[in-house]
TonB-dependent receptor (Stakelama flava), 795 residues
Amino acid sequence: MKPTTALFCGVALTVIASPAMAQQVTASQEKQDAGDLSRHQPAGTPYDDEIVVTAQKRSQLLMEVPQSISVIGGDRLSQQQATSFADYAKLVPSMTLQETNPGKSRIVLRGINTGGSSPTVSVYVDDVPYGASTGQSNGSVLAGDFDTLDIERVEVLRGPQGTLYGANSLGGLVKYVTTPPQLGVVEGKAKAGVETVDDGGTGWSGSAVLNVPLGDVIAVRAAGFYRKTPGFIDVVGLAQDDANDVESYGGRISVLFQPSEGFSIRLNAMLQNIRADSQQSYDADPRTLEPVSTNPYTGDPVSGYTRGARYREYGDTDYRLYSGALDWDLGFATLTSVTSYSTLKSDDVQDISDQLGGLGDLIYGSGGAGPESAGIYYPNDVSQNKFTQEVRLSSPNSDSFEWLIGGYYTKENGHIFQQYLPFAIPGGAAIDPAMTLPVGPGGSNVNFPDFLVARLDSQYREYAGFANATWHVTDRFDLTGGVRYSHNKQSTYQLLSGSLLPLSGGVSPDIAEGGSDENVFTWSVSPRFEISDHASIYARVAKGYRPGGPNVVPPGAGPDFPSQYNADTLVSYEAGVRAETADRTFAIDASLYYLDWKDIQVTVTYQVPGIGTVTGDGNGRKAISKGAEITATMRPIVGLDVIASVAYNDAKLDGDLPGIDIGVGSLVPPGYDGDRLPYAPEWTANVGADYQWALPGGADAFVGGNVHLISDQATDFDPTYRMELGRRQVIDGYATVDLHAGVDFDPVRFTVFVHNLNNSGGLVNVGPYGARPGEAVSVTPIRPRTFGATVEFGF
């Protein structure tokens, strides 16, 4: 019962917008690679900082990497007040976000999304993967949404990254690169802020970073933050105003031990907690997606964003990540070992009384209390722990031949625990769920202490070996290739128990076990040609995959319910160009792509007697995504940076999806040949400008803004909605305007900002038809217009 909630295509050079955003690498890599990294840099240019990335697990200039990458530097993240996926996704061409609550996000790159529980985009912190590799722990909707405090940069790698990064990178990869400790430097900063949202509450934030050397060979860097984001959705039924406020707090500590230039050890620990009151969604008319105008429980008129609930809802998410990285220069190669242990915990509670159609009243209602005297709430607890070990050898940077070989191992344990629990209406007091039924041998009575409990334990293990090499055929022509062989093995244990099972004709307890294993070979080939010192073209063909696995089969499910689903694979074909003027006042980065996606994993929905709608994972035939992106960076005058990007994406099903049972007597395809993939807009665009100038007395002033546009998006495949209303659910496109301005009196900086100045009501998620009171659907909006101010002090 796993819930599933122009002419070129470009790589955003957003980091170029400020030379200060050029990236640092780890201390040992920086010293080792400094000479090699500058071999293509023209001497005497006005912008001496280069953009350095680690997309190929070695420090390289962005100009030298033959694949599509966006880089957002830490200064730009801070300037934009971008602290989460929702804030910076708009800066990345072809990146969209499907979000139901903070910490409950699905990342979509280049339209690679069909729903389901397994992720298509991987999330990394430095060289460490975070989050589940499969859908057994709802990995697709629990992407690690880390706060960007003291993040050096965010790298977004598009297209499959299966050779160096392994499974679940069909659409690409989001990589947080943290700021390393600095030897011999004492530095720090502190920041405080306040914000208020239209028709909502007020929030505030505070953060601090401190870097301290301990002698000549050890440095410690620590960061911590607290943010309270104000709410703006009222909960009717509980009379809660602005109920969806969010608290997020956490920190990071990193220790660097570097006794010599050729040897270093870096230890890291990170934690983050997200506490979301209520839900970030409101109830809307399923035809127009406008907020409902009446209270579903009383019939009284309501206005604004409202949500019906009679039991207090919330969503908590906790991240923990511990890692250690060793770099040792052996002369002929650098040995790198990265070890990590991480945990993810997600606890949610929702009122699902209306979704279950009065089941609470039917079984637990009081005869004299009238209708709607009992409801059902739904605790959904998901946890995961993950151990990873990667060891690799990489050659020094060279003008002739570079190579990298390595091995990878992960062991992941997942746990899902769900319940149906009755409560009293009004008041929300718990009702004892125990029930005695005559379902024992010979009609004897059996006591059931629970109404319904679902438990799923899973384990995923993967072993992989990989290699990557770049042959500099000439001074202008490079050929890069990579291979990876992976073996994964999965097992699941499912327990369902409670009185609902015999009431619906099943047996309690119901225990099922499953397993799967598979071998996968992925590869990539990337030629690159330098037209000049300031321009290059590249092509890339690459294969990626996503593991399959066993399904959770509920009692009473028919023979069509899939007991397991298969791996899907994607082959991408891409060509791109990067170019800049000699003085770096203009740069362009663009590419075209064609993605061939086979055996696509999709959400399947079935009617199970006595339980209702149950979802799982299955496979469809094929989908195709093709498109183009282009990003231009301009510096027409000193102090003014302009970045403009546009992306076109055509992502559609190639063939009908398999028919599923939704209780109408025949199998119904949830999607048809030619349907757009979910949350894959055809067009996205962003134009940003920042201007900085000197003031008398040594201070600097700055002002800037962004205009972001996104076209219509089809939502998840929902056959019930299509059958009832005769069409696919579509979210209207929208535009947002963000502005910021401030003064830097070094070491103090003041900033004021407004997000969503035009108060767009853009949407990022629509829930399934029939899951809310009446005919309403659950709709998640972007945040309304938000004003804020920050003050920052650094030394």
